[in-house]
Amino acid sequence: MTAQLLIDISALAASFLFIYGLKRMSSPVTARSGIVVAGVGMLVAVLASFLYYFGVAEEAKPHLTTNVTLAAIALGIGTGWAWWSGKRVAMTSMPQMVALYNGMGGGAAAAIGAVELLKTSGTHQAIALVVTIIGSLIGAISLSGSLIAWAKLDGRINGVWRIKGQQALNGLVFLATLGLGLAIVFVWHGHAPMAVTAAFFVLALIFGVLMTMPIGGADMPVVISLYNAFTGLAVGFEGYVLQNPALMIAGMVVGSAGTLLTLLMAKAMNRSVANVIFSNFGPAGDEVQGEIKGSQKPAEAGDAAVNMRYASKVIIAPGYGLAVAQAQHKLYEFVKLLIDAGVEVKFAIHPVAGRMPGHMNVLLAEAGVPYDLIYDMEDINGEFKEADVAIVIGANDTVNPAARTNKSSPIYGMPILNVDLAKQVYVVKRGQGKGYSGVENELFFADNTNLVYGDAQKVMVQMIQALKSLDGGH
């Protein structure tokens, strides 16, 4: 069997594993195995790339040996770093890691394009050049944009950066970048001076920064998903340039999945993707909201727990604060006590709860919460009016009734969890601060709402103790 034939078979096998793995990720029950399957596919694709060494002429092997050695060293360093960082990352930092890894993928695609454009020999076909330029442009934007998203989520960049004429500046930089790319293709036919090629990539990186800096923190999950789609498309385009089927298929699968996810998330916020990218949503710090009627009424954790113990139906709406407090295990311990007492308990998950899609699902799965207790927003929203108690733990914007009733609110029209329709609402939060978007939550001032102040984990411990005391400490 020749090396090329083995490479082709490996590419086909890797492509199948990518698609099958993605299919298994569509269900919480099989998602974990789907990730493993896709990972095996990536391993096959990476190992197969080393087989190119055996398909080149003997006189070219000494030079190629150096490249193979460098690639093996880079692979070892990357694998070691990813293993170490992946083991250490906290669940609250998982969105940052996704943004960082996604940026690295875009950067790798841009690097492939740079190598192709800097080749000084050979004939560049126009179609391949256009594809290379597009992949390089998208990959570079994804790299710098994802790094800014990571920095914002990690608290290294606070707030937003908006200047007068921001959109005009962004448009000017993008047109300049595109113009350089077209010149590389049609003026220099792929053999542009190094300074021109470098300027193209620098401008693309600058545009990624300019595009991401004005976007408010509440929109970062959508931005991460969008850049994920960008990275997939960039990898797919560069796979075409390298004539690598595995890269093409993997890139297009990631690109299409990321695009669909971005559209679904934007829909969940009742906004278009263009509105997310260009509207500068999210307060910059000087916005003034209208006065909200009512007052925030505190409650003790023990009293709230007893009320839920004697309720017939309780619905829990988790949010990012649950992840920050790492309270998911104590929450499920509390839930099991309620279920043992005959209370019907369900979890309600908003599509953009947390800092990334599926964040709350993974968090609850980590604690061992059965999948049949977890419901998506559209499946459970009609049940809140039947609930005796709804408890909100660390969520904010996704439960704000202003999205339904206040046309002057920045989040008006965004679908929310209808927790305010429950007979009694308890909100567990650390203080009286606003949500991630900076919008005041009208739910906290409602007549049927009480706030349980404190760290979510400590509050859950107090609630567990209150329930056990009712049963004589058992």
Model description:
Helix 5 packs across helix 7 and helix 5 runs antiparallel to helix 8. The protein has 17 helices and six strands. The chain is elongated, with a radius of gyration of 26 Å. It is of the alpha/beta class and 474 residues long. The longest helix is centred in the first third of the chain and has 28 residues. Helix 14 links the parallel strand 2 and strand 3. A six-stranded parallel β-sheet has the order 3-2-1-4-5-6.
Query: Averaged pLDDT, please?
Result: 88
| Number of helices, where a helix is a run of at least 4 consecutive DSSP H or I residues | 17
- Radius of gyration over all CA atoms, rounded: 26 Å
Helix/strand class = alpha/beta
Compressed to H and E, one letter per element, the order equals HHHHHHHHHHHEHHEHEHEHEEH
- What is the CA-CA span between the terminal residues? 67 Å
Q: What form results from the Cα inertia axes? A: elongated
Estimated helix fraction: 55-70%
Q: How would a crystallographer describe the biggest sheet?
A: 6 strands, parallel
Q: Strand sequence of the main sheet, in spatial order?
A: 3-2-1-4-5-6
Low-confidence stretches: 281-288
* Number of strand elements: 6
* Portion in strands: 5-15%
